[in-house]
Amino acid sequence: MKMNKIVFCLLLLLLTASFVHAAMADPSTGTKKLDLTRYHNVGNIWLRVSNYGFFGSGDDIVPQYPSLEYPGGSGIDYLYQGALWFGAKKTRRDGLNRKLYWKTYPPTAANDTLMFEGQEGWTPDMKPVLDTLVTVGFDGDADLYEFLPAYNPLLVSNPAQAENYALYNALDGIATASTRTQKRGVDDDGDGRIDEDFVGYTFPFREADELPTQFRAFGGRHIADMPLSAFSVLDDPATAEIWFPLGFMDLSDRSFTSYAFAARYDDDHDGRFDEDGAPVSEQDFIAYYYDYCPFGTEGDRDHGSARGRNRHYPLNVRVRQMSYQWSYDYIKNLVYVEFNITNMNTEDDLIDCAMGIYMDADVGPQTWGVEKPRTTYPVM
Ligand SMILES: [Ca+2]
Ligand SMILES: [Ca+2]
Ligand SMILES: [Ca+2]
Ligand SMILES: [Ca+2]
What ligand is nearest to the CA atom of residue 274? Predict the structure, then answer.
């Protein structure tokens, strides 16, 4: 009996997998509104990445982008499309930003009155209203995107950002760096400072007490602003070994108001751009995206043809997505993807955070012949 149930579930999953093909990624052709132009190809498994949490080729047949293509160059994909999903519980507030509470807890259908903090009759022992919210990079079933770069097509509706949109949309893409040209802990440009000018904007470090003790002097500061003497700490090989500026950065920083983090930027104002960073792999791709509008644009912030049927409640998170690949034999068969998800709410914690990667993992050759639609690919 038990076995029957398990078999049934598996069959159901297989059936579901073959019918849930519905939506596809925004085609990469046309205006440069979202960035789908980068893919990992220095190792033995090739993968397209994006600056809105989407992975793979989707329905982009021409040009064909590698979508977990393995071995690299074989034309065999192991992924149709994938995306980041992130969820958490968040305090509900009213239009005047007042924290909301249940008058009685647990609430019932007959008694679900809400009270705001400080309202007559409100007491501090009341339970706050916590919403369980999930933001999906790509829904998969409908055509829906809830993680978007700062400069995305929805920003057109914000007249205050029209000028910036024209200026930065094409620049707000995916940045790339490589250990083939720059090294962590090395003064690549010989100006006396080390790793002071990463690709794009170089975030300031976290506060001193969040850093390894050796690097406390860097707390809260930009590397480019440090005196030359501060870098002598890296003369000790043991200290240099744990120097990892990408991990030390304060990603909640709001001081860089253009939000074009991936665009080339001269952090140390020496006339050279992005000349001294600390890449991790031979092919680093870095992108930034949000589940809310950092410019405060009014209205529902979701994108895609299904947005009319969807209401997106943002968690207010910023994501730095970094993906890495190497060509070395012992590590060539992988793409490493890291998501740094930052709570950008100034007052509220995000509770019980959970993340997942949605994967629609079709397996098959990229082309059987131009006439055949992709949905006829067999599942191996
Ligand atoms: Ca420099
Ligand atoms: Ca330097
Ligand atoms: Ca520079
Ligand atoms: Ca830079």
Answer: 4
